[in-house]
Structures are given as C-alpha cells and as structure tokens.
C-alpha cells in the first residue's frame, strides 16, 4: 500500500467541500461521523481530553459490549454518506491516521443509488451493492481499495455505506470517481459548463505547488487562499496554465475569473483559450476566447462573450504565475453536448 493508486487523482465525490454529508451512523460516541469527509488532512493533539475522553479528529465508536447502549441488533458499526456529486466510483481510501490502539481490524464498503430526497430510514431499507468486500485494516495508515464495475457494468451511485468491523476509529474516508450529472438539470437552461458538479474535470495543469488544480472548479466560494489553485513562483517568464474539460460541448456566454483572497499573488494577466474536441483526439487546436487581460487582486472578473463558438475544453493561462480561486463558465449545452450527457446518464443508470 506504499504506492498511491491512480484513482486517487479523481474527484473525491464524498468530500464535504463538494456537498457530501454523513447522514447516519449507528454510533459516534468518541468522534463525530462528520469528520470522515473533511477535506483537510486529519490532525491529533495528544493529551487533549473532553468529557468523553481523548478528542479525536475522526469517527470513533464506543467499545462494543453485549447488550451495550446503541449497538443492539448489530454486529458492527456503520455510517452512511450522501455523495456530494453522484457518479461512478473507481476507488476508496480508508484512513486510520492516529488511530493506533483503537482502529477497526476490518472494513467493508457498499453503495446504493437512491433517487429524490431519501431519509436515513429510506436509506437503511434501500438495496445496497458491495463495492469493497470485508478487508483488513492497520492502524495509522491509508488503505486504498480499487472498485470494480458492479455486476460487470458501471453504475451511478448516490450514497455509500462504510462499515467498520466490529468497532473503533477511522479518520477519513475518500470516495474517488467520475461525476455523472443528471441531464434533466442541464437541458434548456443556462449552466456552469466548467462546474465539477456538472461533470467538468481538470485534465492537466502546469503546476500545482501550493494547492490542487481541481479547486478551480469546485462549488461554492473560496473562503481562504488555500481553497483556490496557486502555482509556485516562476522565474522563466513563460507562464502557467490549466486545462478544463467542460461538462459537454456548450456555448459560453459569461466567463468569471475570480482571484478572491489572492492579494499579493494574483496573476498579472491571463489569456483564455478554447477548443472543440468532442472526441478529444487533438491537442493543439486552441483558439482565443479571451485575449490578454489584466487581473486585479482579490477581485471577480466577468467577461461577456458575444458570438462565442462551441467549446468542449478551455485552457486558462496565468502570466507569469499566481493564484486563481474559481473559474465559472456560464452558458448552454449544444444539442450534441446534451446528447452526450444523456448517453452517459443512460449508460450508468
């Protein structure tokens, strides 16, 4: 488990900062269930005690005892997570960081697709599919488990259930995969073509020294400097760049480039390029969408596009370097773009 698998470079569909939520757990006596999906790394402060014992940064249940409170009728502890972005799950990470004498010896992961607005009772009664069988865990360690196609076919899931067997503590739980948006909410209305929640993805970036490129297209506002995309300082004068594959082919109408919280490290200027590659074979077919434009620190820059061409990809060039909090691309899907979204939805239903 020393090598980090490639699926960890995909989107964490369960993370709190993309809308994930831990909606149920049968026990959380020592550590709250919500800690599982915090985007930041777990921490530990020894000899820090509350009224229930050592304060932990993770989900930790009480020691199971026959007839004990909160455990009747169960053989293990479990929690249900609503994915912030429903999609195809490619792998999961179960992190027992700082849990050494109190980690669970085994874990299992199941997934379900439940439409609408299910309550915890609805989810407990749902049909669940095992995506990670009962597997051994070690203390203070990241455990990566690849997920095979359920029943030989890819499926779009909305919820996952993590079981620790029989009890103990888990610091973080990551659910890596590919978003599959519901086409009903993209058809015939303006949408953010670059939104992670709509199926857009970062495909390449020149530099990711200070923060992850994916931050650029996450939902919500960037609250602090670390929640955007920021590159190292360049000394060659070339400039940094990031490429986004949009949700599908669309026509942009308004572009927002937000440098929120970047005050002494915003780019001096930017250029935005586009490409129309429905099949994604070409790589040098860029055309100008926004010409060279100066950037202000800590400012939301809005650009209105007239007579824009259809695009499937955008390349934001920041010169010479710096940080950008968010990129928003407000526009509409083309007929072929919507057809592609509908086909992906049907293939993974």
UniProtKB/TrEMBL annotation:
Associated pathway: Nitrogen metabolism; (S)-allantoin degradation; (S)-ureidoglycolate from allantoate (aminidohydrolase route): step 1/1
GO molecular function, one term: allantoicase activity
Catalyzed reactions: allantoate + H2O = (S)-ureidoglycolate + urea
Listed SUPFAM superfamilies: Galactose-binding domain-like
InterPro entries: Allantoicase (IPR005164), Allantoicase_dom (IPR015908), Galactose-bd-like_sf (IPR008979)
Residue stretches making up the Allantoicase domain: 19-179, 199-332
Keywords carried by this UniProt record: Hydrolase, Purine metabolism
Pfam entry (one): Allantoicase
Listed EC numbers: 3.5.3.4
Entry annotated with the keyword Hydrolase: yes
HAMAP family: Allantoicase (MF_00813)
Family that this chain belongs to: Belongs to the allantoicase family.
Protein name: Probable allantoicase
